[in-house]
Amino acid sequence: MADFKNKVLENIDYPTDLRKLKESELPGVCSELREFIIREAALNPGHLGANLGVVDLTVALHYTYNTPYDQLIWDVGHQAYSHKILTGRRKVFATNRLYKGISGFPKMAESEYDAFGVGHSSTSISAALGIAVASNIKGETDRKVIAVIGDGSMTGGMAFEGLNNAGASNADVLVILNYNNMSIDPNVGGLSKYFVRLQTSYTYNSLRTKIWKTLGKINWIGPLARRMLRKQQQVLKSVVFRESNLFESFGFRYFGPVDGHDVVGLVHVLSHLKAIPGPKILHVVTKKGKGFIPAEKDATRWHAAPGKFDVNTGEVFSTVTDIPESPKYQYVFGKTIIELAEKNEKIVGITPAMPSGCSLNMMMKVFPKRTFDVGIAEPHAVTFAAGLAVGGLLPFVNIYSSFIQRSYDQIIHDVALQNLSVVFCLDRSGIVGADGATHHGVFDLAFMRNIPNMIVSAPMDQVELRNMMYTAQLPGKGPFSIRYPRGNGPIVNWKREFEEIPVGKGRKISDGTDLVVLSIGQTGNFVVEASAILKGEGITFSHYDMRFAEPIDHEILDEAAAQFSAIITVEDGVIEGGFGSAVSEYFASSDKVVLIKRLGVPHKFVEHGTQEQLYRECGYDAEGICHTVRELIKQRKGEVERVK
């Protein structure tokens, strides 16, 4: 890659430029695109493996279809880098996932080529059907709609809902199944095994082609025989596969598997499919990480680049420091659940396709029969856990905060309503950083605390995380939610003896004289930092780590109101309905008059950037807390002066 030059790519700003090329030039475009993505990711790490795998498919799609009039939807959006580069964003791609830069996912507000905003999985088929039906109603019958869905996303229940509806509608939709046997971790379940059988069984396609060509050579009977073959091809498939094709059972015409790295071949296939009306499935076989040997060998590690790296060797550059690094919350979770499972044989672990991301893979190695990856199927994960709880086990359901939203009904109806002991460990809660609005886990405090029977907690550090997990698995606790952020905690020596935390009880961190600050979760560390800054200015405040949003510690609230007339609440979540709202609601129903200032995520969708940049933007980093304290003290002093 040392002599890399954008010889062709530098002249492609939009798909109209791509379509001016000869088919023979397309492999060169794919090669340049891969090198471009690798070099950009080496300097500005982002999703790498999936994007390298769909380069050829992306080029073929934009070459064949009249985008943006023809609508192209990516599921999930972390495989759309080539798409972005070819649709007007090559020159600004260096800002990908950076603060105020372009998004790492398709985003309708960013480009007319981004037909639908995506970040979570399994949504593309439903969206494509909606767009296709709308186009038909408006008389735009020549518009083509294509959904590119990974085999991992196809395990999500919503994908099957879309297939079921689209197959019955006769809408002109092409679903491209990008099969690489991976989401982030290797795919699991019966559907994954079925895709393997489809991929390896070329017998049907080759036999059908031979019969078709042979019949075409027979003059007068050929056309009639071919029509009969079309009618009888399902019988032929049943003979070869010895089972019916799943997708054709839904009402889709199935084509494939085809080589997803033969760009010219893909152009020919897609050109033929354009002329076939109705719902269609094209099964494309690709390799995650294609063109970058380290990513091909270790697709899980290189799903997203693990840091800045050497483009020739794949060596990841590390920052050497003498300061011991405190571990990530995810690592502490992984180690702690093993300790607890060794002590409590009822504990089982569940994750929807994120064993390495959430560190449940640690438990999988030690307790493989007590750990379950259910695929990208969050609603199923929750109700599966409910069934395990009914059966006498104690499930720990580990799901990213932004993904747990997909199973809200199951949490209410199947777990909380029946008061079952299920522990929800909500990873990546709060602001997560570069993945942006689709992945920030900022709503769980608000929607969990409104569910009856649900305990809602958040640790300030790794030691509290361990103790909350320990507390949650004690008898009689019922539904229990523990949220913790992405990244490293503040404590280096985190492994200590377990201690039960009284449910609904907070703790005092420090005393002060000017006002009181109530925090929950990791924001308590921002408050500690702010306290140190303000102490140098002669300002002190009392600080409580509340630990629980539900039930909330009424004793601390009464104590705070008795000593101070002003309270600041701090949370790494939405202000509306969250922890601060719980405090306000308590005082609204009492006879105490207290000024409450709530800090947290404002009522908007926060875009991407580093966590530190976004904490600052939202106003609840250490400096934001300092500013609020200063302003509140100034305001209170002004009120006193006016009274005098």
Protein described:
It is a single chain. The protein has 644 residues and is α/β, with parallel strands linked by helices. The protein folds into 3 domains: 9-201 and 245-297, Rossmann fold; 329-485, Thiamin diphosphate (ThDP)-binding fold, Pyr/PP domains (Rossmann fold, 3-Layer(aba) Sandwich), CATH 3.40.50; 507-643, Rossmann fold (3-Layer(aba) Sandwich), CATH 3.40.50.920. Helix content is 41%, strand content 15%. It has 25 helices and 17 strands. The strands form 3 sheets. Strands 7-6-8-9-11-10-15 form a 7-stranded mixed β-sheet, with helices on both faces. Strand 4 (253-259), helix 12 and strand 5 (280-285) form a beta-alpha-beta unit. Helix 9 runs antiparallel to helix 10, helix 16 (378-390) runs parallel beside helix 18 and helix 21 (523-535) crosses helix 25. The radius of gyration is 28 Å and the shape is globular. The model is unreliable at 198-203 and 238-243 (pLDDT under 50).
Question: What's a concise summary of this model?
Answer:
By secondary structure, the chain is α/β, with parallel strands linked by helices. It is 41% helix and 15% strand. The chain has three domains: 246 residues, 3-Layer(aba) Sandwich (Rossmann fold), CATH 3.40.50.970; 157 residues, Rossmann fold (3-Layer(aba) Sandwich); 137 residues, Rossmann fold (3-Layer(aba) Sandwich).
